[in-house]
Amino acid sequence: MKPTYRTLKVNAAILTLALLAACGTSSVYKEETFSKETPYLKNFPKSASQACEAARFALLSQGYRIEFGDDLNLRAKKDFQPDDDINATIDFDVTCKATGSGSTVFVNAVETTYELKKTSGAASLSVSGGGIALPWGKSTDALVKVAGKTIEDEKFYKRFFDLLATFLAK
Q: What Cα–Cα distance (Å) separates residue 51 from each residue in 19, 59, 94, 130, 165?
């Protein structure tokens, strides 16, 4: 029995759906552990405002720009260009909370990567009757976000907290 056009069409649709289902990404919340052990906080025997001021000095000393800040919260940013066509930023958030024995500093950093994408177009000018065409090209460059991820590296946060502690000791 020869397959009909309709049968081939249905089989192609089923195969396409199966391939699309295989390409789907799983939900990331399933991997979230909510562990008690976390690199994102550290306790200090100083007030919350003192801890946040030390965090501000630590970030400023490393070339971060403070984009927002008050006594207990701040947001800082640093730009990087690891390659000619790639830019990256680290957005760093700090929240300081008072505790019975001092304060807890909560931090979170997100690395975002942008890639330079070039788009080009062409246009021409024609003069009627003479058949003259003057072609010219147009190219546009744009930074396009290609990745963004919370930094999870414990050593990264340890280095920050160690530097913060040195400013608290001053």
A: 52, 12, 10, 76, 8
